[in-house]
Amino acid sequence: MAKKPQQLAIDTRPWRDTANNKPFVRIKNVSKKFGDIIAVHEVSLDIYKSELFCLLGGSGSGKSTLLRMLAGFENPTSGTIEIDGQDMTEVPPYNRPVNMMFQSYALFPHMSVEQNIAYGLKRDGLPRAEIAARVNELLALVKLQDYGKRKPHQLSGGQRQRVALARALAKRPKLLLLDEPLGALDKKLREETQFELVKIQEQLGVTFIVVTHDQEEAMTLATRIGVMNQGEIAMIGEPTDIYEFPNSRFVANFIGSANMVEGVVSEDEPDHVRIRSSELGCDIYVGHGVDCAPEQRLWWAIRPEKMVLSREKPAGLHGANVATGIVEEIAYLGDISVYQIALASGKRLRVSQTNSVRGNPDAITWEETVYVTWDEDAGSVLTS
Amino acid sequence: MTTHDPTIPPPRRLKPWNAVERGLARVGITGRMLVLIAPLIWLLVFFLVPLAVVFGISLTSKQFGRPPYTPLLTSEEGTVQLTLHLNNYIRLFTDNLYVAAYLSSIRIAAIATIITLLVGYPMAYAIARAPDRWRNILLMLVVLPFFTSFLLRVYALTGFMRGNGVINQFLGLFGIEPIVMMQTDFAVYVGIVYTYLPFMILPLYTTLVKLDVSLFEASADLGARPIHTFLFVTLPLSLPGIIAGSMLVFIPAIGEFVIPSLLGGPETLMIGRVLWDEFFSATNWPRASAVAVAMLLVVVVPIMLLQRAQGAVVEK
After folding, report:
1. Which of A18, A106, A139, A186 could form a disulfide with A102 if both were Cys (CB 3.0 to 4.6 A apart)?
2. Residues B67, B150: one domain?
């Protein structure tokens, strides 16, 4: 019975088997300059059919510019964009098999919901009956059957978002681009809509490329995430890869929260690495080989939930992985508590612990001296 | 004991303005009304009263003397008599000159408005889509002609369109016979379009510049070629600007006097000229006043229609 999940994994994750799968969208060495400003720099990216790919980055990271180049609103300064095997670089937006859902939704204010959805179909010159049938189908898909005659300004934010989605899906695009699709919604509505969006994407099998600055959104939606920083792709990977195995200090800091310490390699063996860290006041024992040299300066990042707090000094691993400090702050978040531990070096660690005991009277409290320990594979060694 | 009782608030210090406000409030006058009173008085003194005077004169009859019309009210042995002459208005409908002048004015104003729109729309669009640092300079250029006297600019136009004017001299270089432009309807159209173009461009610009660029992108994204984006998105959304600009050109163009008399020929019949002739050549003040009142009605009706249309478009 072990075969099935494995096969499934290959079927739904074509990027894991690049030899046998042709990418659907192929971005090759694309750069975009606005005057002297480099918005996108030498980005290469392959996206596969039926993927829900998230471009994640802060403002000015170039993620929106990249999306606009896919839609055809901007032309790359250099590089090529291929969609479904066709070079799209010189194709104007109205001839691309691509539709976009705009951040502002960009609904036509002078048209009703139905007219908005039918707009693209009318431009294709479809017969009237066919357009009407398709519009009804889409209204049902986004659960707005009773709102067809309304104007956009008579709708709530969430309803407008759904009209924008329906309009973008109307022409059955091969590729749907979504620019901050949930950005204008409040938190609760956003969470509901996230799952709806994924459901619709799975139902239709359309390839989605979503631009977002919200990492939680990217984590929930994406099959893969491309983290962008200053016009370049910092990392491409599945959400778990990005979170658990960041490839650089930028990614580790950008996604979630991470404790980052500097250290020097003191032992460099094929099966383990020892890092001396004066910031932590102890050695870090890493249970796998790392591509580094003895005495090399590097960084080690660990997530707050990967560490354990205790009052008694734990045994540690190979005389390493135990730091000590004083509890400075405690943030009680209900399910977890986040402790800020001040180490002797002045470095502060954030450690989160699950509140598994109800109203625990013996919980670690302010000003206590505590020990922090972690597993040999709990952190990531970063050389850049 | 005279300790301070905390339940009694300290006496509020009265500013002089508070006293004034309270005094006015007692008579039933609020600050909002005060603000409105100034423009209301202005309108009353400089618009409604003169209009009433003109309307009054239109109901009198011409006579020789000073003033050149019969009095509206006469008193004879303690009884006040009101004499209304309606024949001025009746003449407006029975004399072909007036009807023809009104129709001709509307026609010329309408054609000029359409030409102004066709010329002004691309200019307004280009300014609205120009880079930020260019926009204000271009707008300045649109308004710049207002810095020179209107009369001077109309005279300058005659310099261009005269028989031996700039245009004909230029055409002469290529051996083309001089074209007669002055004293024709063509010259009147040129004059009106040239003079009123800024009134068309400015409201068009304000609506076009506010349009969200992502609407055009959405239209292109959904497969609309640029011409379709213009027809189905840009044009309907700029309708309020089109209506406002057309109103600002059409209404003053109907009553235009200077342009037809300086540039137009004898056959260019416009109500403004008829009005001038009645006042100054025929010294028929009552008839001229009737022409003016009728013109007001001619202008008010399209304003009301346009405002209704505009209200329907905005619909918010």
Report:
1. A106
2. no
* Total number of domains constituting chain B: 2
pLDDT in tens, A181-205: 887 777 887 888 888 888 888 888 8
Nearest CA-CA distance, residue B244 and chain A, Å = 18
- Answer yes or no: do B62 and B190 share one domain: no
Written as one letter, the residue type at B225 is R
Tokens of B165: 């004017």
Distance CA B202, CA B144 (A): 13
Q: Which residues of B touch A (CB under 8 A)?
A: 212, 214-215, 217-225, 228, 232-233, 236-237, 315-316
CB contact at 8 A, B287 and B87: no
Instruction: Identify the burial level of A242 via C-beta atoms within 10 angstroms of its C-beta, where 0-12 means exposed, 13-18 middle and 19 or more buried.
Output: buried
Which residue type occupies A41? Answer: H
Nearest Cβ partner of B221 from A100, A104, A110?
A100
Q: Which tokens in the block code for residue A356? A: 């598994």
- Interchain CB contacts (distance < 8 Å): A and B: 65
Domains of chain A, start order: 5-97+173-250 (3.40.50.300), 257-307+323-382 (2.40.50)
Query: Cβ-count burial of B281 within 10 angstroms (0-12 exposed, 13-18 middle, 19+ buried)?
Result: exposed
Using alpha carbons only, give the angle B67, B70, B75 rounded to the nearest 5 degrees. 110
- Angle at which helix A157-169 crosses helix A128-141, to 10 degrees, equals 130
List phi, psi (to 5°) of A124.
-85, -5
Q: Which residues of B181-203 are buried (b: 16+ CB within 10 A; e: fewer)?
A: bbbbbbbbbbbbbbbbbbbbbbb
Q: Which domain-ending residue is among B82, B101, B128? A: B82
Structure token digits, residue B241: 């600007």
Nearest to A120 among B217, B222, B225 (CB): B222
C-alpha to C-alpha distance for A103 and A97, rounded to whole angstroms? 20
Nearest to B222 among A110, A151, A171 (CB): A171
Do B63 and B103 fall into the same domain?
Answer: no
Q: CA–CA separation, A26 vs B47, rounded Å?
A: 70
Reported as a single tens digit per residue, the pLDDT across A313-348 is: 888 777 888 999 999 999 999 899 999 999 989 899
CB A227, CB A242: distance < 8 Å = yes
Instruction: Please tell me whether residues B109 and B230 are part of one structural domain.
Output: yes
Give yes or no for a cis peptide into B67 (omega within 30° of 0): yes
Convert A298-325 to b/e letters by CB count within 10 Å (16 or more is b). Answer: bbbbbbbbbbebeeeeeebbeebbbbbb
How far apart are alpha carbons B282 and A1 in whole angstroms?
110
A109 contacts B225? CB cut-off 8 A: no
Residue B288 lies in domain: 87-315
- Over residues B179-238, the pLDDT tens digits come to 888 888 899 999 999 999 999 999 999 999 999 999 999 999 999 999 999 999 999 999
Same domain, B284 and B197: yes
Name which of A75, A81, A82 is nearest A33 in CA terms.
A75
List, for residues B157-186, the tens digit of each pLDDT value: 998 888 888 888 888 899 888 888 888 889
Residues B215 and B308 in one domain: yes
A149 CB within 8 Å of a chain B CB: no
Are residues B186 and B308 part of one domain?
yes
pTM: 0.79
Per residue in A1-55, pLDDT (tens digit) is 333 444 444 456 777 777 777 889 999 999 999 989 999 999 999 999 888 999 9
The tokens describing A179, both together, are 């620019």
Say if residue B10's pLDDT is above 70: no
CA-based nearest residue to B295, from B239, B252, B238, B247: B252
Residue B1 domain-assigned? Answer: no
Both structure tokens of B219: 């239209």
DSSP code for B59:
T
B242 Cα to chain A: minimum distance (Å): 15
